[in-house]
Amino acid sequence: MRAAALGFALLLAACSSEAQEQVAIEPVPTPQVKPEAVETSSAHAEPLHDAKSATLNSKVAPEKMDGSKPLTCVGEAVQGGLLLCRTYGSTYVTLGNTKAQSDGNGKIILGFDRDAPATMTAKVVDPGGHSYSQAFNVKSRNWDISRIDGLPKNQVSEYTPEELKRIRAATARKKVGFASRVDTVRLTEAGFASPVAEYTKTTNFGAQRILNGIKKRPHYGVDMAAPAGTPITAPAGGVVSLADDDMYFEGSLIMIDHGQGLISYYLHMQDVLVEDGQIVETGDLIGTVGSKGRSTGPHLCWRLKWRGQNLDPELLTKWVDK
Ligand SMILES: [Zn+2]
Predict the structure, then answer these.
(1) From ligand 1's centre to the CA of 267, what distance in Å?
(2) How far apart are CA 271 and CA 286, in angstroms?
(3) What number of other Cβ atoms are within 10 A of residue 86's Cβ?
(4) pLDDT for 125-165, tens place per residue?
(5) Closest C-alpha among 310, 224, 306 to residue 268
(6) pTM to 2 decimals?
(7) How far is the CA of 172 from the centre of ligand 1 (A)?
(8) For residue 223, how far is its CA from the centre of ligand 1 (angstroms)?
(9) pLDDT at position 4, please?
(10) How many helices (H) and strands (E) does the chain have?
(11) CA gap 29, 164 in Å, rounded
(12) Count of CB atoms within 10 A of residue 47's CB?
């Protein structure tokens, strides 16, 4: 009885993983599906073993850094993870195909996509034109599998021209929000505070959805179920790059740029309590939990991107330097 109730709660708090980033429409799990077909055992993120030993010493001037390593970082090189590094000021770092520039304090963020390869090399070019490289072994993770079978084939929705117009307009607004690149890194060695104080996690970051045997886009968020109206607070300082309560799929959507395009975002809220361009600090109220858009129950779908790479926001809540 209890298990059945829990399964139902999990279903209620699920949101469509596929709908957020593009117009491509995927089938949505429906409540008729057996609960056990939806949720699987959780692959909890590993703790950040190295975070403490690698804590940045902010008193170390960049020019006094260990010359053999151009980047000194906290965090962990793991799929979906990120490093907050110190390097020389105004230095370009290219990781994979992604290029970023350190801020005036020599701080730079480097993210590892959910599907990052086992080894990645950062190419560092300082303002004097000297180049260095630093390799990272990227720890791989196992992802939850959400297998749902027996969905009717016609569950791919069809949209009216008016709906398509709304979807395209929302997609364009998201693009602008994700393009934000606040110069100064506002993320600190404290990582993220949880945006919701009390919640039940219903889906892990990275869960692989398999619908009728076909692999779909992974779930790029952490689903946190909580009663409608529960406060949502900023997990770290940043600048709001999008605050919109009329999104077709997300219902409502807030994006916060924590610096250099590290953007955390919040879906399905009941109330949006910030505005575009607003500066927020850790713990500031930004919205409340809701179930707007393509959602089947009150929850926060919390997501994180760095320059197009999909990251796991929950990993940052485990940084030790609180
Ligand atoms: Zn979600």
Answers:
(1) 8
(2) 8
(3) 22
(4) 988 899 999 999 999 999 999 887 877 665 556 788 999 99
(5) 224
(6) 0.80
(7) 21
(8) 5
(9) 41
(10) 3, 21
(11) 21
(12) 12
Residue with tokens 């999104």: 247
How far apart are the C-alpha atoms of 274 and 253, rounded to whole Å?
A: 11
Are the C-beta atoms of 311 and 305 separated by less than 8 Å?
yes
DSSP 152-217: -GGGS----HHHHHHHHHHHHHHHHHHT---SS----TT----SSSS-EEEE-TTPEEEETTEE--
8-state DSSP, 316:
H
Q: What is the pLDDT of residue 36?
A: 30
* 197: phi then psi, degrees, rounded to nearest 5: -70, -45
Cα–ligand 1 centroid distance for 222 (angstroms): 6
Identify the segments of the chain with pLDDT beneath 50. 1-13, 16-65
The Å distance, Cα 122 to ligand 1 centre, comes to: 31
Query: What domains sit in the chain, N to C, each tagged with a CATH number?
Result: 2-45+153-205+220-316 (2.70.70.10), 66-137 (2.60.40)
- Candidates 187, 188, 185, 236; CA nearest to 55 is 188
Tokens representing 266 are 């919040």
DSSP symbols for 3-70: HHHHHHHHHHT-B-SSTTTSS-------TTS-GGGT-----PPPP-TTTTTT---TTS-GGGS-TT-S
Q: Which two tokens stand for residue 122?
A: 């950062």
